[in-house]
Specification:
The protein has 108 residues and is mainly alpha-helical. It is built from three helices and no strands. The chain has helices at 2-19, 29-66, 73-106. Helix 2 packs antiparallel against helix 3 (73-106). It is elongated and about 90 Å long.
Length: 108
Amino acid sequence: MPYLKTAGVLAFTAGLFLIVPDISFAESDSSITKRINTGVKSIQTVLTGIVVVVGIVAALKIIIKHLPGIDDPHVKNEMWKSLGGVLLAVGAAAAVIWLLPWIYGLFK
């Protein structure tokens, strides 16, 4: 029975030795930083694209909603105010996506 316990501990240790990577095989800090920066820029680009697509869909919905009564000046004014709000929201969201990591980098 004690041999079984010893064999189990040895098997566990050998497994950890094979699974856990050796620190000498790690990459340098500059290549890791470059990869992280590339990944963050890719995520920012995708998020900006999503914000723009949502803004376009919202603007189209507003235009389609107000299109039947576009002859009325009040409806036209309401439509342009709504489109301005959508444009402002898209601009603010895109600014947050790009400025937040930059501000974080300033205090790092």
